[in-house]
Structure to design on (965 residues):
């Protein structure tokens, strides 16, 4: 049964790669019969190599991809060390859902509203009497500082969320008390005891962040450098080139982007191996005299404030802009307000939301079942999906992958647009769900299963009554991640649905291409609303299930004699 | 199969064209049949969806079409029409010769050339349309960026490369590119243009080259910079010379450029730039109407005229609702629809119809078109973009 399901998963989630990659590789060698290109050649490769500024673009992509990931991991680790199990943690956890819910594109717009050369930050400086003309601004700067920072800030909450389930599994409190009993300070214990367990469990989420950082287009268009652009933007521009005969060049550049992204993942993996496996003396070098005052020195929100601050600023400015009729530089507030931008869009909102939600729920629940199947299969047969296969849909430029997928759907007669869109969502949601569950599954103590089996539960009962309750928090969060991923899909919805299935996101992206700040703000907020609801639900559910679990355990402890005395029911 | 189909279409078109010339009655019978067939069809119109005004206009068109012809016009909003051309190419690759997902699309220039060369368009159809008679043939409706349209697309509106300035901040706007440079030198950091290959940026380069070169004629013939590097270098030398000087005193010292027309409008409003650039000769009025610009903003063109092009409507070869699409195009070309489109409070896109089409009540469209300069051959645009990339992208 589980084996059959596993192969169904492979079929659904790996099959699209075949047309997807074919649709990338064949055009790369200039083989496109529908355009009359019938002789394969490598012209497109030379065309790409001779593109001025290519190496610069590649460097920028390496810098933003690797830099934003390393920064985000660092931020995440420092925040965890500071706040995990502290009274502030609950508040941080509460703040995660709104921060995660802000779509990348809305965050980028808000970030730009804040820091661009006519943004709110510079308006404040002007109000204070500075003349900011010609000052350096981090929006679209040539070193990609703004892009790198924005990505790092935006991804940190995601890593924090992924860490919750991981840390709940690796009994942090016990480890820390043992470590402190052995003379390790709080900081040292986190570095030498928790980090080596946390990092491997976070591998896939980190890969996802890195893959996103390399291949992101929309955020890079708003915040990234323009001379030259990052490689991902270049690929996107080339795929959108009206001259179809230049499609091979786009395909080759997509292959290049793919290899760069894979290189970055390899580098991150190598870094992890170097720190944790190869060069591990620092871990076992013992405790040093504690320089800091240990746990007592936790400073309030200082570390976390910038993350909340930037996000709140972004949302506030989005709100202001969505109601602004006139708001010139350097006015601190709009000079006239209007409701028209909300009114114009409110008509179709209900239908768009219904489409978005139904697609998201369907694809995420299917993906959840498939991901659990894969993870159980791995536990049973010690054979899992290779990490690169999981990461592939996240790294590959969607545009290039979808071209091949789109062609293959046309070979099937009939117009099954809704089905194809749901399938493509499943395809892109699955890796995120899988990576969200990967860590918790890895850290699940398999002896609990063995124990339950030895007490007479069959496989299903063990899963449902022992494993599921323990992993429910992770499952809730994973679902929320999946749903928000599905809600954000633009290209798959548009391309496989032939534009006939419109969601909040397709509408938002189409309207954002007009670059009206007000309209962008309205849709940025609307786009954040649905994920916000789902993240809040998920975090509430995960907390509730934890609590329910705990009270359940206590109840059992009260009747411990009963359990020991009663005869196990063999079935 | 494909050839057969095309041949059939050609034959069909050929049989219509003389009939059109011969008698009006026969045409209307023919047209009546199309209208009958179209009833109940849904036309999926793929068009850029980045403007609330245009989207609202298309919603209005849909209501009218439903009431008058029983045709539903569904606006498929895309961020870039290249998404649609890609989809058509995918359908072609998969051999989907009928029942395509696109019935009508809004294109011009390079996109049209691409689709035409790949045989992805239906037609010729323009002469089948009763409202074709109203179209102002003095506009370049037979050529799209020097590419003959051959009836494969019907004109919808006019774009003219013009500038917007704020009367309060700039009393004497530059009348040519030399004066523009002078303005930039007098006010360093206040002049810029969108970064090519963005549409407006590339058009700025073409307009500048047209003024600066002493050999305009050559720009209307194809160029291949790989095989004729000397010719290209010689013709374009004045442009690079000019840009070198302009960038030194441009916004952000020429290290950064606005991403497109909208950003120049935004920067004009934020008092960062003195001039914004747009392809809609009515843009200033529309922008004031929507709160994007101060009321003293005004559109104008350089003395040499404005680089002009027409945007078109085309029907893919495999459209499912061809009759519905024809009826929709015909409606969009009607005096009523064109007049509403030209209204600055609605959209403000100039009409493509001649004055005879206008009834007395709406004799003028509220504004006149500027003197127009035809678009150079598209190969120049590609070559200029690449050369710009080489010189300034790093």
């Amino acid at each position: 049964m589980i084996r059959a399901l596993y192969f169904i998963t492979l079929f659904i989630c790996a099959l699209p790669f075949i047309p997807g990659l074919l649709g990338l590789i064949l055009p790369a060698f200039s083989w496109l019969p529908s355009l009359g290109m019938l002789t394969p050649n490598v012209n497109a490769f030379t065309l790409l190599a001779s593109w001025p500024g290519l190496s610069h673009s590649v460097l920028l992509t390496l810098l933003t991809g690797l830099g934003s990931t390393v920064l985000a991991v660092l931020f995440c680790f420092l925040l965890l060390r500071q706040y995990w199990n502290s009274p502030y943690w609950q508040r941080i956890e509460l703040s995660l859902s709104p921060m995660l819910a802000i779509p990348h594109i809305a965050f980028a717009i808000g970030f730009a509203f804040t820091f661009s050369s006519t943004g709110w930050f510079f308006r404040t400086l002007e109000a204070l009497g500075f003349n900011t003309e010609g000052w350096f601004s981090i929006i679209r700067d040539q070193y990609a500082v703004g892009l790198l920072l924005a990505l790092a800030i935006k991804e940190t909450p995601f890593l924090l969320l992924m860490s919750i389930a991981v840390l709940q599994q690796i009994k942090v409190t016990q480890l820390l008390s043992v470590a402190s009993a052995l003379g390790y300070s709080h900081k040292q214990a986190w570095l030498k005891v928790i980090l080596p367990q946390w990092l491997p469990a976070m591998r896939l989420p980190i890969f996802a962040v890195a893959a996103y950082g390399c291949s992101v287009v929309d955020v890079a268009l708003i915040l990234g450098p323009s001379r030259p652009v990052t490689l991902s933007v270049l690929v996107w521009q080339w795929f959108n080139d009206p001259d179809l005969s230049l499609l091979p060049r786009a395909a080759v550049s997509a292959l290049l982007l793919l290899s760069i992204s894979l290189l970055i993942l390899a580098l991150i993996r190598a870094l992890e191996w170097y720190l944790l496996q190869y060069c591990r003396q620092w871990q076992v070098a013992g405790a040093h005299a504690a320089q800091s005052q240990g746990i007592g020195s936790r400073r309030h929100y200082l570390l976390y404030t910038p993350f909340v601050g930037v996000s709140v600023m972004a949302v506030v400015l989005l709100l202001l802009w969505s109601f602004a009729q006139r708001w010139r530089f350097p006015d601190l507030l709009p000079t006239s307000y209007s409701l028209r931008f909300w009114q114009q869009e409110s008509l179709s909102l209900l239908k768009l939301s219904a489409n978005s939600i139904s697609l998201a729920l369907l694809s995420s629940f299917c993906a959840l079942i498939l991901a659990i199947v894969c993870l159980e299969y791995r536990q049973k047969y010690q054979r899992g999906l290779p990490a690169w296969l999981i990461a592939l849909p996240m790294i590959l430029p969607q545009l290039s992958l979808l071209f091949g997928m789109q062609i293959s759907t046309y070979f099937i007669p009939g117009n099954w647009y809704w089905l194809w869109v749901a399938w493509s969502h499943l395809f892109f949601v699955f890796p995120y769900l899988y990576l969200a569950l990967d860590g918790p599954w890895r850290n699940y103590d398999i002896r609990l299963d063995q124990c339950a089996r030895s007490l007479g539960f069959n496989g299903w009962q063990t899963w449902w009554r022992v494993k599921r309750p323990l992993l429910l928090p992770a499952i809730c969060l994973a679902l929320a991640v999946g749903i928000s991923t599905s809600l954000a899909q633009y290209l798959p919805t548009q391309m496989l649905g032939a534009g006939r299935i419109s969601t909040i996101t397709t509408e938002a992206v189409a309207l954002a291409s007009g670059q009206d700040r007000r309209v962008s703000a309205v849709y940025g907020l609307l786009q954040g609303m649905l994920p916000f609801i789902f993240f809040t639900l998920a975090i509430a559910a995960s907390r509730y299930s934890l609590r329910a679990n705990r009270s359940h355990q206590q109840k059992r402890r009260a009747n411990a004699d009963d359990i020991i005395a009663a005869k196990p029911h063999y079935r | 199969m494909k050839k057969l189909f095309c041949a059939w279409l050609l034959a069909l078109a050929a049989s219509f064209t003389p009939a059109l010339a011969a008698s009006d009655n026969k045409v209307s019978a023919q047209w009546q049949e199309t209208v009958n067939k179209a009833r109940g069809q849904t036309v999926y119109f793929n068009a850029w969806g980045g403007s609330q005004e245009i989207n609202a206009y298309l919603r209005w068109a849909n209501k009218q079409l439903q009431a008058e012809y029983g045709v539903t016009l569904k606006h498929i909003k895309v961020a870039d029409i290249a998404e649609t051309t890609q989809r058509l190419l995918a359908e072609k690759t998969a051999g989907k010769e009928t029942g395509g997902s696109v019935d009508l699309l809004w294109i011009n220039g390079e996109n049209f050339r691409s689709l035409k060369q790949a045989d992805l368009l239906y037609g010729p159809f323009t002469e089948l349309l009763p409202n074709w008679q109203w179209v102002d043939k003095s506009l370049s409706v037979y050529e799209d960026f020097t590419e003959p349209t051959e009836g494969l697309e019907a004109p919808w509106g006019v774009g003219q490369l013009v500038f917007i300035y704020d009367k309060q901040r700039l009393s004497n706007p530059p009348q040519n590119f030399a004066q523009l440079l002078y303005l930039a030198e007098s006010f360093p950091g206040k002049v810029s243009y969108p970064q090519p290959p963005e549409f407006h940026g590339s058009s700025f380069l073409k307009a500048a080259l047209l003024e600066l070169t002493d050999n305009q004629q050559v720009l209307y013939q194809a160029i291949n910079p790989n095989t004729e590097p000397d010719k290209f270098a010689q013709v374009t030398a004045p442009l690079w010379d000019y840009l070198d000087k302009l960038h030194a005193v441009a916004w952000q010292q020429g290290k950064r450029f606005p991403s497109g027309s909208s950003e120049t409008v935004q920067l004009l409003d934020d008092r960062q730039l003195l001039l914004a650039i747009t392809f809609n000769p009515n843009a200033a009025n529309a922008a004031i109407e929507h709160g994007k610009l101060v009321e003293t903003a005004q559109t104008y063109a350089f003395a040499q005229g404005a680089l002009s092009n027409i945007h078109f409507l085309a029907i893919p070869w495999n459209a499912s609702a061809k009759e519905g699409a024809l009826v929709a195009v015909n409606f969009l070309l009607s005096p009523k629809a064109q007049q509403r489109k030209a209204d600055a409070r609605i959209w403000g896109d100039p009409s493509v119809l001649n004055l005879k089409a206008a009834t007395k009540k709406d004799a003028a469209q509220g504004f006149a078109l500027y003197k127009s300069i035809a678009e150079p051959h598209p190969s120049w645009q590609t070559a200029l973009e690449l050369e710009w990339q080489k010189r300034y992208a790093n």
